[in-house]
Amino acid sequence: VPLMMDEALDYLEKRQKRDPSFTYEVIVVDDGSKDQTTKVAMTYCKKYGSDKVRVLSLVKNRGKGGAVRMGVFSSRGKKILMADADGATKFEDIEKVEEGLKNLQPWPNQMAISCGSRAHLEKDSIAKRSYFRTLLMYGFHFLVWFLCVKEIRDTQCGFKLLTREAASQTFSSLHIERWAFDVELLYIAQRLRIPVAEVAVNWTEIEGSKLVPFWSWLQMGRDLLFIRLRYMTGAWQLE
Questions:
Q1: How confident is the model at residue 126 (pLDDT cuts 50, 70, 90)?
Q2: What digits encode the pLDDT tens for the residues 175-214?
Q3: In a designed cystine with 111, which of 85, 100, 166, 235 is the match (CB 3.0 to 4.6 A)?
Q4: Are β-strands 196-200 and 113-117 bridged in parallel, bridged antiparallel, or unpaired?
């Protein structure tokens, strides 16, 4: 968290000095963790002020999707960026996804989404992965394409920029609260005809990920089937 927060706030403060009309807030969501996340994040709140840094602590673990949704619904900006706390994507790459969002104009009903993507790094990452992890990756990509999202190659990069209207429409319809929530988010956007850009960003493998490949990917595969079947049968509906 400190590495990501230091980098993000350094960038945001410098950008605000260059352009006084630029305003920002950083919302840290502690998803019911038992470590010192809230305590560490609160030091930044004290340093920069609660108008710029806010900390939300969930009593019970909700899953990444539930935590991100809580942050989105608590946000006040015209544009909302979701980013992982590990800092795998350089924060200055926000300018790339902003450009992707800009290129989608005119936005229908002020709705648009720009997704950071690691698809351009796939060949290099395969060389570093085990055969089993590579097989799981291709299997997951196929299921995403076959069942849910056709046009986005990397649905799982945790660096996505949404207009406020797009965030409101998609997150208010979200059911999946764990790792596959990104897929449902983009599936909803696809169904609502919200334009989506995929933009290449820098990405670094960070040690210490809590995602256990086999069991988490099995759960994600199950969630993909749920997404497709429940929307097809009308169990889940979009307004």
A1: very low
A2: 999 889 999 999 999 999 999 999 999 887 666 555 556 6
A3: 166
A4: parallel
